[in-house]
């Protein structure tokens, strides 16, 4: 019996791609699945940036892989498998995006509230930009999934959004992007210039802004910020929390439409609303940023149940925004327990 690796051996490496491709083109679905597996995480991240929703991203990837399977016989190998897949997924995202509402952050939806204002009823239609459970570190280094960047992308027309991502995040050439989008290099360059102008008006939307903030703080600074935030929140210590915030901090909580702008209103809402019940926090990575699973004790002596996923946006070492996502589907999406227990606390 030969000791040569099977074309379906998951440890065979990238050099097995030609064998997998040949087997898949011959109608082997297992070979196709293995051929697609290394690309799926980055394709999902790409679709998330395009659509602003992990759910929509999964739909787009599923649709794209089905199209790839059906169209595999027509793949002539003039481009790489990766480029071919990006062509399929990008166009799927453009189609899906034209059928669904643009994803928004709270300030895009309406004006801020002041302490004592009604918080409004949850807006349940899929209008909110949704958080992204972190992909593998290799994708984070290369691909911008930070919340402000993805939010800013949603303000671009679909083609400009695709061009900006493909050129500046994924580093495809202008000629490759033109082929992917069935257009000309001149059109790609024009779309990129317009997209850059729009994005330049939003300085916090640089694709690696938060990674730079974390790098500037360093491991000790990040640990101190995380520990200080957790302690202040769990102790309901408004003064300690305020010390961590910028003067123009924002607090949002979709799907509720209400949000608060500025340290005074944010602190007032924490004191009178958020800290009315006890909390436990567990640090988790979200969108390549600092995030926390926030567990709320709704009844005295009762369990702490997941109430929110908080994502921090930093500026100059302070917290410039706390985005609290209240979607009850978050436990499933993030793969974290709904009930807090002490053994959930990670090493920090």
UniProtKB/TrEMBL annotation:
Identify the Gene3D superfamilies for this entry: 1.10.1740.10, 3.10.450.50, Winged helix-like DNA-binding domain superfamily/Winged helix DNA-binding domain
RNA polymerase sigma factor 70 region 4 type domain: from which residue to which, for each copy?
148-199
In its keyword annotation, does this UniProt entry include Transcription?
yes
Q: Which domain of life is it from?
A: Bacteria
What keywords is this UniProt entry annotated with? Sigma factor, Transcription, Transcription regulation
One Pfam family for this entry, by name?
Sigma70_r2
> Where in this chain does the record put each RNA polymerase sigma-70 region domain?
36-102
Q: Which SUPFAM superfamilies match?
A: NTF2-like, Sigma2 domain of RNA polymerase sigma factors, Sigma3 and sigma4 domains of RNA polymerase sigma factors
Tell me where in this chain the SnoaL-like domain is found. Answer: 226-321
Spell out the NCBIfam families in the cross-references: PRK08241.1, sigma70-ECF, SigX5
How does this chain assemble?
Answer: Interacts transiently with the RNA polymerase catalytic core formed by RpoA, RpoB, RpoC and RpoZ (2 alpha, 1 beta, 1 beta' and 1 omega subunit) to form the RNA polymerase holoenzyme that can initiate transcription.
Belongs to which family? Belongs to the sigma-70 factor family. ECF subfamily.
Query: What name does UniProt use for this protein?
Result: Sigma-70 family RNA polymerase sigma factor
Read off the lineage from the record. Answer: Bacteria, Bacillati, Actinomycetota, Actinomycetes, Catenulisporales
């Amino acid at each position: 019996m030969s000791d040569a690796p099977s074309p379906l051996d998951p440890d065979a490496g990238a050099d097995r791609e030609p064998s997998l491709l040949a087997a898949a083109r011959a109608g082997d679905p297992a070979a196709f699945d293995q051929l697609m597996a290394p690309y799926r995480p980055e394709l999902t991240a790409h679709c998330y940036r395009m659509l602003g929703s992990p759910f929509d991203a999964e739909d787009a990837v599923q649709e794209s892989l089905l199209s790839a399977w059906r169209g595999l016989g027509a793949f002539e190998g003039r481009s790489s498998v990766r480029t071919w897949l990006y062509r399929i997924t990008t166009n799927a995202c453009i189609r899906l995006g034209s059928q669904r509402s643009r994803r928004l952050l709270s300030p895009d939806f309406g004006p801020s509230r002041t302490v004592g204002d009604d918080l409004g009823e949850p807006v349940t239609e899929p209008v909110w930009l949704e958080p992204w459970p972190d992909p593998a570190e290799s994708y984070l280094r290369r691909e911008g999934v930070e919340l402000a960047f993805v939010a800013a992308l949603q303000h671009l027309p679909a083609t400009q959004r695709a061009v900006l991502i493909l050129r500046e995040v994924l580093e495809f050439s202008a000629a490759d992007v033109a082929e992917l989008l069935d257009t000309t290099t001149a059109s790609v360059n024009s779309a990129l210039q317009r997209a850059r102008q729009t994005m330049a008006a939003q300085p916090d939307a640089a694709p690696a802004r938060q990674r730079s903030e974390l790098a500037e703080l360093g491991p000790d600074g990040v640990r101190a910020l995380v520990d200080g935030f957790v302690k202040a929140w769990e102790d309901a210590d408004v003064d300690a929390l305020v010390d961590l915030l910028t003067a123009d901090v924002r607090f949002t909580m979709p799907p509720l439409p209400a949000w608060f702008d500025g340290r005074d209103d944010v602190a007032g809402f924490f004191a009178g609303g958020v800290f009315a019940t006890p909390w436990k926090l567990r640090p988790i990575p979200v969108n390549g940023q600092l995030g926390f699973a926030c567990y709320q004790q709704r009844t005295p002596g009762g369990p702490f149940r997941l109430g929110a996923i908080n994502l921090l946006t930093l500026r100059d070492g302070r917290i410039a925004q706390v985005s609290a996502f209240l979607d009850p589907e978050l436990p499933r999406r993030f793969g974290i327990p709904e009930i807090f227990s002490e053994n959930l606390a990670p090493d920090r």
